[in-house]
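Order emerges. As here.
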Amino acid sequence: MRGPADSPKSREEFEQIFSRNLTTCQWEPHPLFSVFTQYDQEYYLTQSEVFLHKYKCFYAVSKTISPKRMIELGTCAGSSADAYLSAAPEAEYLGIDNFGVNTRRDDQSPWDPYQIARQLFESRGFRKCQLLKTDLRALTSLPWRADFVVVDAAHDFDNEYADLRLALTAGPDFIFVDDSDDENAAKPAIEKFLLEDMNGLIDYTVPISYQGGGLVIKLESS
């Protein structure tokens, strides 16, 4: 699925369009289903402006790419997907995660990310969404071809590198890596991936500045 005609042709063009999309972004987190309402919401609420900026960056990345099909590795309860899909509401979306249930800190009730993601998508009116509950290490390839793949699952070195290689199997135009600035895991995994797996196959990369950092990888057009 390489090379849509309307995708940014250079890092400079991507940065310009992204900046405009971020500046004009009116997206707001869902009032009931977001990181600010999840089981560990206190962490996010104490840094609300920082994380609001982060999720608006997700929106702007997606709007800049304008994907038709996207896959997210590490969906959790859909907070990131909300931003990506709000920017590209007609896109088909596949979210993959093990969707492990957590416990709310305030009342000890179960917090089920799979069900919350489904409620979120229904509330937003996102109709072209599917969720796949599985261990990413059980997959040798992704079930869809997609022009946009988000890598945002486990952030240790081995899983990060494996997820980047798995993302390639969808034949994407763009890969977006969240928390890419982690010096102990994500960053060395990305460096290995770009050097050993993508040497000569990259058009450009664009770092995105927010909490934890993000990296857009534009694959070479066929």
Summary: The longest strand covers residues 202-208. Helices lie at 11-23, 41-45, 48-65, 79-87, 113-124, 157-168, 186-197.
